[in-house]
Design brief:
Strand order of the largest sheet: 2-1-7-8
Largest sheet: 4 strands, parallel
Distance between the termini: 41 Å
Shape: globular
CATH class of the largest domain: Alpha Beta
Radius of gyration: 24 Å
Oligomer: single chain
Number of helices: 15
Number of domains: 3
Order of helices and strands: EHEHHHEEHEEHEHEEEHHEHHHHHHEE
Number of strands: 13
Structural class: alpha/beta
CATH superfamily of the largest domain: HUPs
CATH architecture of the largest domain: 3-Layer(aba) Sandwich
């Protein structure tokens, strides 16, 4: 519809904490949302919460991740889902991600998922095994259209345990509740008591809230070969139309050039960054420094550089006067051109720093311009612009003690002093020139 944009973004699987690599996809979804809004569109953004149906393996084998989490933590399935969903939303807030229009949960849309499976069944695209209802990919010639690979190409050289599946690309739509396994999340269905597969939720909920086809579907690049291929197949099979008109995927975040891995200890959460003294917005700045379709390599040195750049930006704008009513038209035009060139955020950041250092632009005009930029960057520059503060001596003394604790790597004492400073109304930021303070 003219003047409107409909977007569906694959959200978290709430069986554990989301790490910073996962959060890149959420940050890209936010960038897209902000950019479309900046261009004058009314955006409806839906981000799902996967709280049932995601098995340990993409090949429909292994245990449900929720069962694994229940055994690990001794909690109910709903307690686990709620805990990790809250953690995810807290991370979104810390990263200054604009709230989506709605965050539907898979467990709250079982009827819609069952209805879609029934349509697929009526269209002769399903078959039954002893453990569930499966999508028959051989009956959909378009299968593989997103990745550009045919099923036989995707399976070349692969060793796959088929079990009762006809072929490895077939996937579960509905899984029967296994005997002897304690499950809390099971529902009645025309095929027997069980739970939905991972992929059906997104096809069903995107149609429920956006209709099909909607405008844009986003997610991490890892979702292309399985989850998103299967989403496309389900919507085509059930409704005969594409799920989305455009698919956009953010690339991986690597750690020291390698894949983020729990076993290698290279998976970090937003809370881990906070515990190390970083502003979460430093990670947002770091992500903006790379094009969304390019891999970015996370290192502590790179995050230090992002934190220092963010601090420099905040400190520079503190001394600026009240912003003018309008920004600099040349800078605004160049900035929008960069953003509208497939979201070229590295170029947009370069334009921002050109503006900061441009002595020909009046400071009040700089302020108005940079606030317009920040509608997309989301770096909360308005919290600093024109807000020089006078820091009391007792806060400065606490800051010095905290800096000494940090140098000594006494993180417990450093955190205690940070909290004491916060109680007195100030936030402390660690910079190359020592601690800096702002009002909270």
């Amino acid at each position: 519809m003219q003047g409107k944009a409909s977007v569906y973004s694959c959200g978290p699987t709430v069986y554990g904490y989301s790490h910073v690599g996962n959060m890149r996809a959420a940050l890209f979804s936010d960038l897209l949302n902000r950019a479309l809004s900046y261009n004058g569109l009314d955006v409806t953004l839906i981000m799902n919460v996967t709280d049932v149906g995601h098995l340990v393996g993409d090949a429909d084998v292994g245990e449900d991740k929720m069962i694994v989490a229940m055994r690990r933590e001794g909690k109910t399935a709903y307690e686990i889902a709620e805990f990790y969903a809250r953690a995810f939303f807290q991370d979104l807030e810390r990263l200054n991600v604009k709230p989506a229009s709605k965050y539907p949960r898979a467990t709250e849309h079982i009827p819609e998922q069952i209805a879609m499976i029934e349509r697929l069944e009526r269209n002769d695209l399903t078959y039954r095994t002893s453990d569930g209802i499966y999508f028959d990919t051989a009956k959909l010639p378009e299968y593989g259209r997103l990745s550009g690979q045919k099923s036989e190409e995707k399976l070349a050289g692969a060793r796959v345990e088929l079990g009762e599946k006809k072929r490895a690309t077939d996937f579960a739509l509905w899984k029967f509740a296994p005997e002897g396994v304690r499950r809390e999340m099971v529902w009645p269905s025309p095929w027997g008591e069980g739970f939905p597969g991972w992929h059906i939720e997104c096809s069903a909920m995107s149609k429920r809230y956006l209709g099909v086809p909607f405008d844009i579907h986003t997610g991490g690049i890892d979702l292309i070969p399985v989850h998103h291929e299967n989403e496309i197949a389900q919507t085509l099979g059930a409704d005969g139309v594409p799920e989305a008109n455009l698919w956009m995927h953010s690339e991986f975040v690597t750690f020291d050039g390698g894949k983020m891995s729990k076993s290698l200890g290279t998976v970090f959460t937003v809370q881990d960054l906070v515990d190390r003294g970083y502003d979460p917005l430093a990670y947002r700045y770091f992500v903006l420094g790379g094009h969304y379709r390019s891999k970015i390599n996370f290192t502590w040195e790179a995050l230090d550089a992002a934190q220092n750049a963010l601090n420099k930006l905040h400190e520079a704008t503190r001394a600026w006067p009240r912003p003018a009513d309008t920004g600099d038209p040349d800078y605004l035009e160049r900035f929008l051109a960069a953003i509208n060139d497939d979201f070229n955020t590295p170029e947009a950041l370069a334009i921002l720093w050109n503006l900061v250092n441009d002595e020909t632009v009046p400071l009040e005009v700089k302020g108005a311009t940079i606030l317009r930029f920040d509608q997309i960057f989301g770096l909360q520059i308005d919290r600093y612009l024109g807000k020089l503060i006078e820091v009391p001596d007792d806060i400065l003394e606490l800051g010095a003690r905290r800096e000494a604790a940090r140098v000594a790597k006494d993180w417990t004492e450093s955190d205690r002093l940070r909290d004491e400073i916060a109680i007195r109304g100030f936030a402390v930021e660690d910079t190359a020139d020592g601690p800096k303070f702002r009002l909270v």
